[in-house]
């Protein structure tokens, strides 16, 4: 028996990167995965990879910042399964730049994807998650939620909001038997970090700050996600699991 046998999981932003790795691992563990992304083509490509490997997946174009997209997703999952067991709020964007030069438009986009998207999905999927025997919401935050790194103040503010929302919702949703937990990744090699990690100096600095001596890969996050999605974490809610090769534990 696989660890997520029979579970219905929604993973936002799962066309590429961390979300894709989580979607593929969930499917390998027996879940039916709703692969959703702003980019419908990458969502479909991930779903095809899952089906080719013998798993179950449905792709859907969902922009988490658009209420109508989220409503359509909830309706589609309700009509296909009448419940959801797991929601992974993974979709996120990074805007680099000092606060003094950040435009209103950049902040609006950052917050509407990284904060409003998590809030909206967590609210609108509750009726589906309540029907699960053990509903689970997994929010992807960042170790940067608790520290400062130039020039990421605005981005880190959005991740701090996700961490705070996780705690608040854990308390609110406990009575519905829905757990809410956070995974806080360190530096992971994906499209978001690609540009910065191309700079040899930046890469060296970050690797040097990581006791395990390397940056992470999307697959490094999947074990933590399976733990929170599975019944192994039935008594965990409001918790944060750091997956960063020891970076935040070191000085
Ligand atoms: N890569 C890292 O080092 C790192 C570290 C800490 C936290 N995170 C977080 O992990 C999550 C995934 O990041 P990643 O590194 O895989 O990034 P990525 O850029 O590789 O993938 C992000 C995915 O989200 C999708 N997306 C963006 N905006 C969306 C929207 N409005 N609606 C739906 N989908 C949308 C993109 O199309 C893309 O498929 C993000 O929340 C990010 O903040 C990443």
Describe it for me?
The protein has ten helices and seven strands. It has one domain (8-188, 218-245): NAD(P)-binding Rossmann-like Domain (Rossmann fold). The chain has a seven-stranded parallel β-sheet with strand order 3-2-1-4-5-6-7, with helices on both faces. It has 251 residues and is an alpha/beta fold. The mean pLDDT is 97. The chain is globular, with a radius of gyration of 17 Å. Helix 1 (17-28) packs parallel to helix 2 (40-52), helix 1 (17-28) packs across helix 10 (222-229) and helix 4 packs parallel to helix 7. The longest helix is centred in the middle third of the chain and has 21 residues, at 153-173. Bound molecules: nicotinamide-adenine-dinucleotide.
Q: What key attributes describe this structure?
A:
Rossmann fold, 7 strands, single chain, alpha/beta, globular, binds nicotinamide-adenine-dinucleotide, seven-stranded parallel β-sheet
User: Given the helix and strand composition, which structural class is it?
Assistant: alpha/beta
User: How many DSSP helices?
Assistant: 10
Please tally the β strands and state the result: 7
CATH topology: Rossmann fold
Cα end-to-end separation: 42 Å
Q: CATH top level?
A: Alpha Beta
Percent strand:
15-25%
Helix content: 40-55%
| Radius of gyration over all CA atoms, rounded | 17 Å
List the strand order in the largest sheet: 3-2-1-4-5-6-7
């Amino acid at each position: 028996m696989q660890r997520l046998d029979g579970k219905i999981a929604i993973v936002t932003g799962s066309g590429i990167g961390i979300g894709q790795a989580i979607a593929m691992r969930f499917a390998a563990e027996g879940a039916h995965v709703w692969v959703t992304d702003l980019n419908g083509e990458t969502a479909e490509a991930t779903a095809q990879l899952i089906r080719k490997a013998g798993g179950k997946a449905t792709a859907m174009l969902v922009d988490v910042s658009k209420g109508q997209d989220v409503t359509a997703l909830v309706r589609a999952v309700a009509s296909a399964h009448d419940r959801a067991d797991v929601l992974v709020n993974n979709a996120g964007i990074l805007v680099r730049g000092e606060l003094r030069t950040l435009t209103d438009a950049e902040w609006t986009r950052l917050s509407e994807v990284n904060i409003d998207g998590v809030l909206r999905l967590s609210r609108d999927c509750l009726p589906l998650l309540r029907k699960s025997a053990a509903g689970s919401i997994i929010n992807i935050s960042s170790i940067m939620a608790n520290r400062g790194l130039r020039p990421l103040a605005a981005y880190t503010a959005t991740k701090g909001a996700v961490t705070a929302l996780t705690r608040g919702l854990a308390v609110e949703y406990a009575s519905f038997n829905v757990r809410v937990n956070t995974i806080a990744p360190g530096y992971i090699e994906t499209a978001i970090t690609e540009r910065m990690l191309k700079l040899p100096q930046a890469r060296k600095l970050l690797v040097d700050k990581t006791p395990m001596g390397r940056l992470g890969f999307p697959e490094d996050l999947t074990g933590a996600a399976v733990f929170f999605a599975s019944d192994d974490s039935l008594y965990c809610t409001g918790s944060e699991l750091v997956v960063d090769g020891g970076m935040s534990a070191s000085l």
